[in-house]
Specification:
Layout: E1 3-9, E2 13-20, E3 25-32, H1 39-51, E4 62-66, E5 70-71, E6 76-77, H2 91-99, E7 103-107, H3 108-119, E8 127-133, E9 137-143, E10 146-147, H4 179-182, H5 184-195, H6 202-210, H7 214-238, E11 242-246, H8 253-267, E12 276-279, H9 285-297
Parallel strand pairs: 1-4, 4-7, 8-11, 11-12
Antiparallel strand pairs: 1-2, 2-3, 5-6, 8-9, 9-10
Pfam families: ROK (PF00480)
Family: Belongs to the ROK (NagC/XylR) family.
Protein name: ROK family protein
Length: about 300
């Protein structure tokens, strides 16, 4: 069975894994990334990690998932808050020359999408839209096991979709950006505004909603409606077979998800009703999806 190398590079840690065609992680290694020490240092760490994997020489190719917008054509990071010293660095060229293997790179959410589309909750469907709802909100479209990155690497930046222009502006995102209204960060902010510092994270608001607290239920209801607006906007562009939803906020799915789907189905055309919602399945969608990059791109 063919094997591939998947790399998950973040601002704190870097992980590399050997993954087979069925998505089984055969070996994984991890180290701190130390991006403040520069691009060459991070590349050396990445090479060292990959070379610690047993039988890396026999792997068919290497895929990398990295946060932020990625230039997949030239193999570079476009913008990054966590890895600023790697912006513009020829990461793919560096790694492919060292190992003499096909090497690919994409945004971390997009590789997670690929993992779920190829081997996870979306594997039975041709058109998969993956959404992660956590600290922020991101997503990506997969068609026939290929992820769409867009002309500039920004496809899937759905957290900036405006769901109501009459909301407040909080950061660089649009006024009424769904990430500022329905992400875990947003629910925590709204919870603190109502309940004070007893709210430490979105889960605290969800727990109050389970206890039928009216103010918490209102926050959750607004969240469900705002998410439905986002899903509706996505669906009316690409009409997927399935939405696969992951991220930490899904730990509270029992209080908002069914309500969100009901709102969503009231917003879409009758002919679009067959779409299904599924929770993400893979425990390691990022690193498995990164390994799927070479698997799906090598002819």
């Amino acid at each position: 069975m063919k094997t591939f190398i998947g790399v998950d590079l973040g601002g704190t840690n870097i992980r590399a894994a050997k993954v087979d065609e069925e998505g089984n992680i055969l070996q994984m290694v991890k180290d701190v990334s130390e991006p403040d020490k520069g691009a060459e240092h991070v590349m050396s760490k990445m090479i060292e990690l990959i070379e610690r994997i047993d039988g890396y020489e026999e792997c068919e190719g290497i895929g990398m998932g990295i946060p932020g917008p990625i230039d997949t054509i030239h193999g570079k990071i476009i913008v990054s808050t966590n890895l600023p010293k790697l912006v513009g660095y020829p990461i793919v060229e560096h790694i492919s020359k060292h190992f003499n293997k096909p090497t690919f790179i994409d945004n971390d959410v997009k590789v997670a999408t690929l993992g779920e589309a190829c081997l996870g909750a979306g594997k039975e469907y041709p058109i998969v839209y993956y959404v992660t709802i956590s600290t922020g909100i991101g997503g990506a479209l997969s068609i026939d096991k290929k992820v769409l990155s867009g002309q500039n690497g920004h496809a899937g930046e759905i957290g900036n979709i405006c769901i109501d222009r009459n909301r407040n502006k909080y950061n660089i995102l649009n006024v009424g950006a769904v990430e500022n209204e329905a992400s875990g960060t947003a629910i925590t902010r709204k919870g603190k505004e109502v309940f004070g510092d007893t709210i430490q994270h979105a889960g605290d608001v969800f727990e109050l909603a389970r206890q039928k607290d009216e103010k918490a239920l209102e926050i959750v209801d607004n969240m469900a409606y705002d998410l439905a607006m986002m899903f509706s906007a996505i669906a009316h562009v690409c009409d997927p077979h399935v939405f696969v939803v992951g991220g930490g906020v899904m730990k509270g799915k029992d209080v908002f998800f069914d309500k969100m789907e009901k709102y969503y189905r009231d917003m879409i055309h009758v002919g679009m009703q067959p779409v299904v919602f599924k929770e993400a399945m893979l425990e390691e969608p990022g690193i498995i999806g990164a390994a799927m990059l070479p698997m799906t791109k090598i002819a």
